[in-house]
Write a structure and sequence with these properties.
The complex is a heterodimer of chains A (724) and B (720). By secondary structure, chain A is of the alpha+beta class. Chain A contains 28 helices and 22 strands. The relative contact order of chain A is 0.15. Chain B is 37% helix and 17% strand. In chain B, the strands form 7 sheets. Chain B has a 6-stranded mixed beta sheet with strand order 11-17-16-12-14-15, with helices on both faces. In chain B, strands 2-3-1-4 form a 4-stranded mixed beta sheet, covered by helices on one side. The chains are: A alpha+beta (724), B alpha+beta (720). Chains A and B meet through α3, β4, β5, β11 and α14 of A and α1, α2, β2, α8 and α10 of B. β4 of chain A pairs parallel with β24 of chain B, so a sheet runs across the interface.
């Protein structure tokens, strides 16, 4: 205990000096007889170090390793530190025109890759690597933006498309269009709502007011409008039967094709659609919700795919089992059945001295003098051998380690005929444990049968320039009811392979969103029920949502996986619906103005799609409009008819065609209504946030972090508002 | 809090998280970046550094506040592949570049990276093991910070750093293929690569503006790596081709010239881009389907019963690189050696899965090419004056993978405080000598260590008649293990198990000029061999080494698909004639599927065929004319000083040497119009042996890569 006291004293002193020095390990070489002398040290050591650590935390406070932010914020440091000298810049008022300018600039960037005629955008990174993308999210996040508002918009886009996996370009387009119309309205009638001192301020107030009304309108009325006016023209996609190679899944496949078309261009959309379906069918959990397997794939996709560059795209394929993205550290395994594998989290050879430890070698008795340091290291070697021996007794022949192991461990494993893979990534390990059902070993001395997985094979696999470990699980089909397989994505260049992988990941997200239920709720009780927001924030409060759904159960029509023909159909239909809604006598003047505004803004999306040819735009519009006079009565019978147990997609399709619908499914592909609905809501939320901004405060530091600080300030405030 | 900190650290980067940079690389290094107040600079510099050294993974592990308030340590984990080129490049900066020792003002960028301490590999450690490198802006700063001893290893490629520029705003090019500037650059690149194509290629000298080494080459992998590109589209193409070459070793120039002419022809025919992309893709599938057919007119089945066709294949690869400067007998010798080395690496007794062995190449400068040789077994460097006493075969050997220099590297990162009177060194040495005694007792005659052996132990073993070889290096470990059957030992304190010992049949000493090598003869059948390559000077030797590796890879590819394509431009003209015939004859079928009119389809197909013919014509560099015969569609060249009548001379042969000239044959100049025809198969009873063959796998993949890359480039609408 006295020693402990000393140690803590020591660390305190060192701390004051500013040198980071912590726990010490004292090895009394001479006083105890070998080899037992090491044992007491190890019994005591952890205790000591823990005490020291606690003490240190108490005294040193914020100088902890990961606390740079704290470190910077502390006033004492800020004074002494040149790096934290902050000076205030003049305030910058934000005007409506600034906001419009910024968003228009972003719009012009994404326009080139928008629509079926759009192309790829090629970026050069600071590193000289090239990045290739057609995804709006990646394009926007790759931009080096200075303006805080632009960054804020990009953040909103990023958030939206991380959830839905789609719609980032339409997001910016719609936002710009809305801003343009609001700007026009505000400059025309600045004193619409209340008198203001300056014109600019009046404009801003009008715009803010309009945006608020828009959001309110969308949160309350939009879902119903969509359910009534858009859904009847759509089809249902279900995952139940996508595996069947029949026409049932035609709409599902078309949805995928059109998604891959927007991401990867014409050339590969069919190829990747097939690959995607194959992957999905392999991972389909029998007797379970189909969305469950998509969720699983979405979360473990980084470990599930391997990118190979320098090989034609057509070589992309599925391979059974799992690929561990590392090579064997020892030489190739001998084939020995059954293969047993374990996963290690830590070092197999105990790390005696960590960075802050000090090993003290003291002069002791003459008897043991010559054995000090050598014994210390031989102890570690023997412990490795005992671990390997334990593993051998279990018949383990494959070791997967998260960390790099010492060469003694490698040699011991080789001699025991085991094969060892080191530095296995976290994702790979988590997928392995999920599929094999074992838990990783953190304490090497305690190995139990539940740590041991059985494999059917484990062999090296050469993919491109790298050699990986390829393995398959023994009883996965019985246990998890899936056939695990991995995806190999090939492309001539890294940028392209990466792009394909991103498209896959986004396809999972898109499907998850598409399969989320859209629900129709009754208008009357909603006005009184406080939980009305549940429709807008699906993800956040599911419990709330279900409560809402139960209450309104009888009037709800829950649709999952509803899709509609792409090419602006959704926008045309919603435009029409909003237009009619605005003209109906039951709504107030304000609401009608707002719905008109949204209706006009929506039209800008198809306008851009057909921007190369105005004739096509008019054709498309008249084609969609031709559907409307036929009152949804007949169409909804179609819908009800197709809500039967199986084969929704195709039946729907047939009935649509029989119903003399002129919507050509394959012309433009399909898109998800639920994604579109969420998109409109997200855009309106972003718009409200943008227009609530009043001022930019630029705080300068020598570190050039001005834009960052202001961005943080803005985003924080916007998040606060989100929560309100 | 934790999410916010990376943003703070990388204000200048495109993305707050750097996961985009991540690519799996096998070897790990840790790099410490010393951050100065201009954080984003250093980070940008760090990234640039990474790129040149092929670092693929940056991951901020932890940040440590340093002694000086405005300095911060950021520990990053980097994975970087240290191959020979990179380690060669790790040179200290030249003295005259050492200026600006103080921190430059924020608008000024240091011209060179000499202000960064350079990194040198840790002495005695092979490049593969975990090392730590340090990087700071001021040498003095890190000296003051007292880095721990294992961090004292420093390194840097100063070349990288001279390329650092402050982050400039993105430059946008809208519709890049419509701008004449980009088109000119692409054309320039095409001409550059075209002139390096084929056996009569013009060589290229590449040297940079800061006095780097001069490279002479006509090989695509070296050339493309050496040139820096000014436009993202060019780097996109470059990246694709380099990736292809690293996978298949051959046909890099073929792919790049084809890709660039496809892009150029697409611009010339003035069709909509999406139409062109679709038609190109369709025609590619026609080509690959035709080449995969059994009776394809330009495919030759390889006969493994005789080495003749293998030698022809190797010879075509070697002769296509004129930088090697080989005379006819030298060319034949090297081709034979390449095939011999390949055959030696094919194992004789196959258990369940074929694992090819390795060829270790040893370049020796200053000798005639004809002295090059291939040996079964391994040749290792030895110390001077080695004496081989009477050794009875087989020899028992032991192989250590841990260092035997007396250090205890596995103890951890902590400090060791030694009190007065404790002699750890002698304790460890005693332990090492114990090991030596055990080895002697077990009658080991050959003692090999991957790392360094303590001189005392070396002396002790030598005195007892053991051959000691140290500093073997990680790259030779695997072949040696395969050759001897030994298991590497890494424990010093336990007795070496019997099973860990390996065997060699015999040991002999070989002299190559000034170099002495010890030759380990295999005890049984082995798949490991050593190739000694000799040439007169360094440039030629480097190229020869590269070419032999390519040839070996191409030969290995034949094991998967035992066929080859006719060389000398004949495959290209054959394919062009085939595509032209197919497209003219069933134009009505594909055009509605592809969503274009028949005229558009024909125009795009013509562009495709012309690009293929460009490849054949670019084989000729001496103002000769390229022709195609109108029966078999093979490629013929007509030297500039000969008239066309000369072709009818019966001795003339086509590019690949399969078709012989005769009186009633008709020719047409390439890139002129000729009536489409279906190439006739060769029907002669005893066809001539082709004299030029190309790798089938590499060429088919190159064709696909070229079309896919061209399609990608055509689809780019905005660059930044």
């Amino acid at each position: 205990m006295e020693q402990l006291q000393e140690l803590t004293e020591f660390s305190r002193v060192r701390k004051v000096e500013g040198v980071r020095e912590a726990k010490r390990k004292v090895l009394m070489c001479g006083s105890v007889h070998c080899p037992a002398y090491i044992a007491p040290v190890f019994r005591h050591q952890p205790k000591q170090s823990r005490c020291v650590k606690l003490d240190q935390e108490a005294t040193t406070g914020r100088v902890g390793q990961d606390r740079v932010e704290d470190y910077m914020k502390s006033p004492g440091l800020a004074q002494s530190n040149t790096f934290q000298r902050v000076k205030m810049e003049p305030l910058e008022q934000l005007h409506l025109s600034h906001v419009l300018q910024t968003v228009s600039a972003l719009e012009s960037v994404i326009l080139r890759s928008f629509g079926p005629e759009g192309g790829q955008v090629l970026f050069t990174r600071d590193t000289g690597q090239v990045m290739l993308s057609r995804s709006g999210k990646r394009i926007l996040t790759a931009l080096h933006l200075d303006h805080p508002l632009a960054r804020m918009v990009v953040r909103c886009v990023w958030k939206h498309s991380t959830i839905t996996g789609d719609g980032s370009k339409t997001f910016v387009l719609l936002l710009a269009s809305l801003l343009r119309i609001i700007h026009a309205t505000a400059t025309k009638e600045p004193h619409m709502f209340q008198p203001h001192t300056s014109t600019k301020a009046a404009e801003a107030a009008t715009a803010r007011h309009l945006a608020d009304r828009l959001l309110e309108f969308a949160l309350t009325e939009l879902d119903e409008l969509i359910v009534l006016n858009v859904l009847p023209h759509g089809f249902c996609v279900s995952l139940e039967n996508f595996t069947a190679k029949t026409q049932h899944n035609l709409s599902f496949q078309t949805l995928l094709v059109s998604f891959f078309h927007t991401r990867l261009g014409y050339a590969y959309c069919d190829f990747f659609r097939n690959l995607f379906c194959e992957l999905l069918s392999h991972w389909k959990v029998k007797d379970d919700q189909p969305s469950f397997s998509i969720q699983l794939l979405n979360s473990s996709f980084p470990a599930l795919h391997t990118q190979v560059s320098g090989v034609p795209v057509s070589c992309s394929r599925l391979i059974e089992g799992q690929v561990i993205h590392r090579d064997f550290a020892t030489l190739c395994p001998q084939v020995r059945k059954p293969l047993k594998a374990v996963v290690f989290n830590g070092y197999l050879q105990p790390k005696l001295l960590t960075t802050r430890d000090v090993l003290e070698l003291r002069c002791g008795d003459k008897v043991t003098e010559d054995r000090g340091i050598v014994h210390f290291s031989s102890w570690t070697e023997r412990s490795v051998e005992s671990i390997i021996a334990t593993l051998q007794s279990f018949g383990v022949s494959v070791l997967l380690c998260a960390l790099k192991q010492s060469s003694a461990v490698l040699a011991a494993a080789t001699q025991a005929g085991m094969c060892l893979v080191e530095c296995v990534s976290e994702e790979d390990i988590s997928l392995f444990t999920q599929l094999s059902g074992v838990t990783p070993i953190s304490d090497c001395r305690r190995i139990h049968p539940e740590h041991i997985a059985t494999l059917t094979f484990c062999k090296p696999l050469l993919l491109g320039a790298h050699r990986y470990v390829h393995l398959d699980f023994h009883d996965c089909e019985e246990r998890l009811k899936v056939k695990p397989c991995s995806l190999v994505i090939c492309a001539p260049s890294e940028g392209q392979a990466d792009q394909h992988a991103c498209a896959f990941q986004d396809a999972f997200r898109m499907l998850l969103t598409a399969l989320e239920p859209m629900h129709k709720t009754q208008t009357a009780p909603k006005k009184t029920i406080p939980s009305e927001k549940c429709t807008s924030s699906h993800a956040e409060n599911i419990s709330n949502e279900t409560a809402c759904r139960v209450r309104l159960h009888q009037k709800c029509v829950i649709e999952t996986g509803c899709v509609i023909s792409a090419g602006g159909t959704f926008e045309f239909l919603l435009h029409r619906a909003l237009h009619q809604y605005g003209h109906s006598c039951s709504v107030s003047v304000n609401t009608s103005a707002v719905s008109q505004l949204l209706a006009n803004a929506l039209l800008s999306v198809p306008q851009q799609i057909y921007s190369h040819n105005l004739k096509h735009f008019l054709q498309a519009q008249s084609r969609v409009m031709a559907l409307i006079p036929k009152q949804p009565n007949t169409l909804s019978t179609n819908l009800i008819h197709t809500e039967g147990p199986l084969g929704n997609g195709k039946l729907n399709l047939c009935s649509c065609k029989k119903g003399n619908m002129t919507l050509k499914l394959l012309d433009w592909g399909l898109e998800s209504v639920s994604c579109k609905y969420q998109l409109v809501l997200a855009v309106l939320q972003c718009l409200t946030n943008l227009l609530r901004m009043h001022m930019v405060l630029r705080t300068h530091t020598i570190l050039h972090t001005k834009s960052h600080n202001s961005l943080n300030a803005h985003s924080e405030s916007s998040e606060d508002e989100d929560e309100d | 809090m934790h999410e916010a900190s990376p943003k703070f650290l990388f204000p200048g980067l495109l993305k707050p998280n750097m996961s985009d940079l991540e690519v799996q690389e096998p070897k790990c290094l840790n790099l410490f970046i010393l951050l100065n107040p201009l954080v984003h600079w250093v980070t940008n510099k760090g990234c640039n550094l990474l790129q040149t050294a092929d670092v693929c993974h940056v991951n901020i592990v932890q940040k440590l506040p340093a002694a000086e308030n405005n300095w911060m340590w950021v520990s990053c984990e980097l994975r970087l592949s240290l191959d020979e080129e990179v380690t060669d490049g790790l040179r200290p900066p030249t003295p005259q570049t050492e200026e600006q020792p103080s921190l430059p003002p924020k608008t000024q960028i240091p011209r060179t990276l000499s202000t960064f301490p350079y990194l040198t590999p840790r002495p005695g450690s092979p490049s593969s093991c975990m090392s730590r490198f340090e990087l700071g802006t001021r040498p003095k700063i890190w000296e003051q910070l007292h880095p721990p001893p294992h961090l004292a290893a420093l390194c840097h490629c100063y070349r990288t750093m001279s390329r650092l520029v402050k982050k400039s705003p993105s430059v946008c090019t809208d519709l890049p293929l419509n701008s004449s500037d980009v088109c000119n650059k692409l054309r320039l690149m095409k001409e550059l690569l075209k002139s390096s194509y084929g056996p009569t290629a013009r060589l290229k000298h590449v040297h940079n503006n800061i006095g780097g080494a001069v490279v002479t080459t006509s090989t695509s992998s070296v050339l493309l790596q050496a040139i820096s590109c000014s436009h993202p589209i060019i780097s996109l193409i470059k990246g694709s081709i380099l990736n292809h070459v690293s996978r298949f070793s051959d046909c890099g120039l073929f792919a790049s010239v084809f890709c660039l002419s496809l892009i150029e022809e697409a611009g010339r025919c003035g069709l909509r881009k999406d139409v062109i992309i679709r038609v190109y893709k369709h025609l590619l599938s026609l080509c690959t389907a035709h080449l995969q057919q059994e009776d394809c007119g330009c495919k030759v089945k390889l006969d493994f019963c005789s080495s003749q066709s293998l030698i022809t294949l190797a010879r075509s690869v070697i002769s296509s690189k004129p930088t090697c400067v080989l005379s006819e007998p030298e060319l034949a010798h090297i081709s034979r050696l390449a095939v011999l080395a390949f055959l030696l690496t094919v194992p004789c007794n196959i258990v369940d899965k074929v694992r090819l062995g390795r060829t270790v190449t040893i370049p020796i400068e200053g000798h005639s090419v004809l002295e090059s040789a291939v040996f079964s077994g391994l040749l290792l460097d030895t110390p001077e004056n080695i004496s081989l006493g009477s050794l009875c075969s087989p020899l028992r050997m032991v192989l250590f993978s841990a260092s035997l220099a007396g250090d205890l590297s596995e103890l951890g990162d902590g400090r060791i405080e030694v009190h007065q009177g404790v002699d750890t060194d002698s304790q460890i040495l005693d332990q090492l000598l114990e090991l030596g005694k055990q080895v002697l007792k077990d009658e080991v005659k050959l003692f090999v260590c991957q790392k360094v052996i303590h001189p005392v132990l070396q002396h002790y073993l030598r005195c007892n008649g053991v051959i000691v070889i140290e500093r073997l290096g990680i790259s030779l470990m695997e072949p040696l293990i395969q050759l001897t059957g030994a298991q590497p030992v890494a424990t010093l304190h336990t007795t070496i198990p019997r099973t860990a010992y390996g065997e060699v049949h015999n040991v002999s000493v070989r002299q190559f000029g000034s170099k002495t090598k010890i030759h380990l003869h295999p005890a049984g059948k082995t798949a490991t061999c050593t190739m000694i390559l000799c040439h007169r000077n360094e440039t030629m030797l480097n190229e020869l080494k590269l070419v032999c590796q390519k040839a070996e890879h191409v030969l290995r590819l034949t094991l998967r698909e035992p066929c080859a394509l006719l060389g000398g431009g004949c495959t290209e003209t054959h394919l062009a004639a085939y595509i032209r015939y197919q497209s003219k004859n069933d134009v009505s079928e594909p055009s509605p599927v592809l969503g274009c009119s028949q005229t558009e389809y024909l125009l795009a197909a013509e562009a495709f065929c012309r690009s293929l013919e460009t490849l054949a014509t670019s084989l000729e560099h001496d103002d000769g004319a390229s022709l195609i015969d109108l029966t078999h569609a093979h490629h013929w060249t007509l030297p500039s000083d000969v008239t066309e009548e000369h072709l009818k001379d019966a001795t003339a042969l086509c590019g690949c040497g399969v078709v012989q000239s005769c009186q009633n044959r008709k020719w047409s100049y390439l890139n002129t119009e000729y009536a489409e025809f279906s190439p006739a198969p060769l029907l002669t009873a005893a066809p001539l042996q082709p004299t030029v063959l190309d790798s089938f796998t590499a060429k088919v993949k190159a064709l696909e890569v070229a079309v896919e890359t061209a399609n990608l480039v055509l689809d780019v609408s905005l660059t930044m």
